[in-house]
Amino acid sequence: MEPWDSADLDRAAECLARARYVIALTGAGLSVESGIPPFRGPGGLWTRHGEPPLDGYQRFLSDPRRAWEERLNPNGPMRELWEALAAARPNPGHQALVELEELGLLRCTITQNVDDLHRAAGSTRLLEIHGNATLIRCIVCVARFPREGIDFAELPPRCPHCRGILKSDTVSFGEPIPPDVLERCFEEAEQADCMLVAGTSATVYPAAQFPVSIHQRGGDLIEVNPYESDITPLCRVALRGAGGELLPQLVERVRRM
Ligand SMILES: [Zn+2]
User: Fold this and answer.
1) 236 CB burial (10 A radius; 0-12, 13-18, 19+)
2) For residue 165, how far is its CA from the centre of ligand 1 (angstroms)?
3) What is the Å distance from ligand 1's center to 27 Cα?
4) Active-site amino acid positions
5) Quick check: helix, strand or coil at residue 108?
6) Tens of pLDDT along 122-150?
7) Do 200 and 112 contact (CB within 8 A), yes or no?
8) 184 by DSSP, 3-state: which?
9) 173-184 pLDDT tens trace
């Protein structure tokens, strides 16, 4: 027997269909299904290799040249991560969210993932709250550039607009969430009366506060996750299973409504 039942999927589809403004929050679980190792938990990169320093951003600022040398010649867990990122492709869970967007139902996807898979699948209303590993960001003017267009002959690379130091767009430990993205996340969460939470236990702030605030305002939360999480008790419907399996079934039901 499946860990979810058909009636729960129907209830989740009804929630989505009757909502005025649906947004999604996604996390590592969705990436794991595309072959990207998780950071924490069993088999996680940091579980096996130890947590990275919590002052990564301060280290970058104090010696950006060295930080870039390490990034361009990664070893250990970072090499493993970069290889997995390069090989990863979107899965049916990513595609299902694109379909919900095309149906005019999903207004925005806030993701904690940095792997570019939502964009590769075709999501256009996307907020990458922890950045995007394929982009480089200026720490002064916040302009973003594709990594392949940047000249790494001299380190650290400099912003073509303002000569500020360039850093990976991926948000480091100790680094504030870029204010442009964070502001838009808050705006979307304030509008939403329904949130689809997929592949995340939603425990890392600031992302964790979005479902809680939507719930407090009377909105519906729908969880798609193999495991119970802290937000499960707040959810209208909690579907236990893989996003790649459940999200397409959810879209199928929404289409039939
Ligand atoms: Zn700049």
Assistant:
1) middle
2) 7
3) 29
4) 130
5) strand
6) 999 999 999 999 999 999 999 999 998 89
7) yes
8) helix
9) 999 999 999 999
